[in-house]
# Entry
Amino acid sequence: MGKSFEAWGWSEKHPLIIAGPCSVETPEQLDETVAALVKQGVKIIRGGVWKPRTRPGSFEGVGAIALPWIQEVKKKYGVKFAIEVANPNHVKQALDADIDILWIGARSTVNPFTVQEIADSLKGVDIPIFVKNPVNPDLALWIGALERLDQAGLKRIGAIHRGFSNFNDTTYRNSPMWQLPIELKTKFPELPLINDPSHICGRRDLLFDVAQMALDLDFDGLIIESHRDPDHAWSDAAQQVTPGVLGDMLHRLKIRTINPENS
Ligand code: PEP
Ligand code: MN
# Structure
């Protein structure tokens, strides 16, 4: 299962970088954030439209009204856009709005019925789709979700490592448990695997080290939350960074390259 980014027909250089706000909030927030990210060389933007929140009563995303705002920034800045989908209705609306990349969130990956419904709604559609690891450290569940998409005929499937729920880890919001993504990569060497340091760390000061660890482990890319004004973000404020800070971090990250002459 799985085909590398090269086989997806993507010309982006490794590592793949996806960045953008946790949530799309307003047309102005989106435009300003995307403009600043593009200046930092980011070509693929993320932004949550429908937000799965652990507790009720928190901001649950602006919903489908964000889709025309996204279409606008795609046109204006020439970027690709990735959003989370959690049911076939989201899939339909995302496809109608020409969203380029989908992902299944950690709270959906745990539910095989949900994943199957999403997979069925994508039969005959050729769109890149990433699967975040389930919230619990269950590799079989993660693989099962990837297989459901594979069996539905999707050709461009990738995995996102966003860490695992924990009860007493005082450092990370979601423990990285690196052995799980490593085992996934060992089982499916061609499957693109990217790291989401934002949801692992839960706080911005830890992002660099986690991102560097992922690159050292040969992950294929990073998805990082970035917002024009992180402290006032409507969701996940503590872990977001400004596009400027993100750009600086991307410059400082050491990217492992294989140089045959030195080996
Ligand atoms: C997100 O990407 O903003 C998100 C809700 O992530 P996760 O599914 O990893 O919790
Ligand atoms: Mn988030």
